Every structure is written in C-alpha cells, then in structure tokens.
Recover the amino acids of this structure.
C-alpha cells in the first residue's frame, strides 16, 4: 500500500493497520530529525509520536495535489520543532493551511508521479557539490539559521546564503519548475 | 495588485526549513500568505526537506504507537475580511485601522508585536506619514520590510503593497513614504538601525525608536 493509500484508509475508515505502516516508516525518522536539533531521546520520541498523531487526526485534510505524504509529514515535524523545541511561534503554515490550490501546479501533459519526483529529488540532492549539500542539510535537518551555519562552518554569512541559493536553483531545475 | 518584489530565495529556503529567526519568519509568512508565487516556491522547497528526512538514519523507538485520540483540528486560517495578512491576525486583528499605534517621532507611529523570549530581533508595524523621508540608516543585522498599505521608495526602487524589501547586514537606505496614503509596513530587524547623522541618533534615543 502506498503512503497516500494508507492515508486515505485512515481518513475514510480510521484504519489502524494503515496507520501502523506509516508510523513504522516515519516515526523513527522524525525522532532522529528532532534529535539532530538538540532534543534528548525522550523528548524526540514524544515529538515523533505527536507528529504521527497529527497525521492520524488530520488525515482527511490531506490532498495529494498539495504534495507527497512525506512532504506533509516533514512540514508537521518542522512546525512542531519550532513550537516545542525552539518555543517560537509557527509563523509559516502547513500546506493544508492555505486555501485550496495545487501546490506543485503540475502541467497536465507531464504528470510526474510522486515516486518519480521523489527519486529525482534524491538524485539531485546527491549530485550537489559537497559544500552545497552540507548547507542544505544544516538548514533543513539541523534547523540552523544562515548565521548559525556561518558560525559553525567559519564562513561569512554571504557565502552561506549564496551556497543555499545555488543549491536550490539546481534542485528546482530537476523538479521541472521554471522561472516566470 | 501585483507583487513585484519577493524575498531572496535563500530566505524562503530558510522558512521552508523552519530555520529562520522568528521575527524574519513572521514577515516572510505574511508575504507568503499574500503571494502565490512564493507559496509555489515554498512547496517545492518543502519537498527538499521531505527527501532529506528520507535520508536521515532512523532512530530506534522505545515505545509503540501511543493512544490515538480523535479530535477535530481547529481551522487555523483566518480567511475572513481584513487588510492584515492572515499570518498576523491573531496578534493585531484583521484591520490595520484598529492597530493601537504609539507615536515614535515626527510623522512615525509604531506598534510592537511580541515575540518569544529568545528572539534577538524585533517585529513591529510602522506607519509613516505620506511623503516623509526616514533618516539615512544602515543595519547591524538583516532587516525585512513588507508593505501593507501605500508605498515607499529608496535607492533600490519602489515598494508597493505585498512587496518585500530584503536588506542584509551593512546595506544602507533612506526610504521615503509615497504620497497619498500613510505607508504601513511590517518590519523585522535583527539589530538596531544605525542612523547616520547625530541629530537622528539623538531623536532615536528620545523616541525609543530602535
Ligand atoms: Zn513572493
């Protein structure tokens, strides 16, 4: 069963087996995501539980037009990390917070499957020069600001910014998004 | 209304990664709630986070699935009428006219928006009388300004409703509010502004505008 099928099963029938499948796949990763940002093992595990519990509760809000299940889970975990670990307000909404609109705006003639898109992104990430890959990981996974990354790597903030920008332009090109 | 000036891509990346300092994130989120183009970028950026989560080695869990509670999630989006961006409404309500402005100097009013304790930056709404020139100033950190009403111009061009002026440490500018309406902006600044004339610095002390 694909992730989005599992989610549908949860939304429609509160299917616990489908949930178990998502839980086993994602909870361990979300836990280590939280630990990378400095949470101890217990807190990280609680936050992983809470992330997946949000998936259970909000399953009916998910729509595949707004991106993959993994992306949705990432944004839930990201916002929980801001709220619980940094104790700051979650200013940026989850994708389900915005009004109905297809987030990826897929062209009808070139519908790329979730799976293909995921593979493309993995390949593109791993094809990045090491220094660009490093700042992207520090930003997304370790949750460091530009300034914090600059401090950690002993670089000027401007260099961090331009590496992130260059990396993003390459990644964006591989998912087929165009400049307007 | 068409938005011409968007935040730098690397700052949007930071937002989607959840690693942007809070005050700046508030301005970005407010712009994002007005700007379809940046929402689309954000959605692409979030897929990067998802891919990286896929690559993170799994931590082992010490417990199984907890108790599955059912509850209706409240709808977060304030989508009713108002000229305040959705992301800001829980702090200042839906209308700019109801903001409790405080006088901050000749022709300038401000309203501070509280942030969490650890924030090293300030977030505020600033209202400037039409045609008023703000003193030349530099920045000791990043500053991000989102126009919510009216417009202003500086050496980098003109900024209208929805536009973002994304200034880095060391940039200097002397914004002038456009004629017509008051110019109202949401401003996040990481460090105090550095005014270039002595008189302006004295006024800064007197009015608490930092
Ligand atoms: Zn934009």
């Amino acid at each position: 069963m694909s992730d989005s099928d599992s989610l549908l099963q949860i939304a429609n029938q509160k299917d616990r087996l489908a949930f178990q499948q998502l839980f086993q796949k994602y909870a361990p990763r979300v836990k280590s995501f939280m630990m990378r940002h400095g949470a101890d093992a217990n807190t990280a595990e609680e936050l992983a539980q809470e992330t997946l519990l949000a998936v259970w509760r909000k399953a009916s809000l998910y729509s595949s037009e707004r991106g993959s299940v993994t992306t949705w889970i990432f944004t839930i975990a990201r916002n929980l990390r801001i709220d619980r670990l940094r104790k700051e307000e979650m200013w940026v909404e989850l994708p389900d917070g915005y009004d109905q609109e297809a987030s990826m705006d897929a062209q009808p003639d070139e519908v790329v499957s979730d799976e293909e898109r995921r593979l493309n992104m993995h390949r593109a990430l791993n094809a990045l020069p090491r220094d660009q890959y490093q700042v992207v990981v520090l930003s997304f996974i370790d949750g460091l600001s530009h300034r914090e990354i600059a401090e950690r790597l002993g670089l000027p903030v401007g260099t961090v910014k331009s590496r992130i920008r260059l990396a993003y332009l390459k990644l964006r090109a591989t998912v087929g998004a165009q400049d307007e | 209304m068409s938005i011409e000036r968007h935040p730098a891509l690397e700052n949007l990346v930071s937002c989607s990664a959840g690693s942007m300092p809070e005050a700046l994130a508030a301005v970005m989120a407010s712009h994002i709630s007005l700007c379809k183009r940046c929402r689309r970028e954000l959605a692409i950026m979030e897929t990067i986070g998802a891919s990286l989560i896929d690559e993170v080695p799994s931590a082992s869990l010490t417990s199984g699935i907890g108790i599955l509670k059912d509850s209706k999630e409240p709808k977060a989006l304030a989508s009713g009428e108002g000229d305040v961006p959705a992301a800001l409404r829980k702090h200042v309500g839906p209308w700019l006219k109801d903001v409790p402005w405080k006088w901050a100097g000749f022709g300038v009013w401000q309203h501070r928006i509280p942030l969490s304790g650890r924030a090293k930056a300030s977030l505020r709404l600033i209202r400037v009388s039409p045609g008023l020139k703000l003193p030349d100033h530099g920045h000791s950190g990043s500053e991000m300004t989102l126009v919510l009403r009216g417009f202003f111009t500086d050496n980098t061009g003109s900024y209208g409703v929805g536009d973002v002026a994304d200034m880095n440490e060391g940039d200097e500018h002397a914004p002038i509010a456009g004629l017509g309406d008051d110019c109202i902006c949401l401003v996040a600044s990481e460090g105090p502004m550095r005014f270039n004339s002595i008189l302006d610095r004295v006024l800064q002390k007197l009015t608490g505008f930092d």
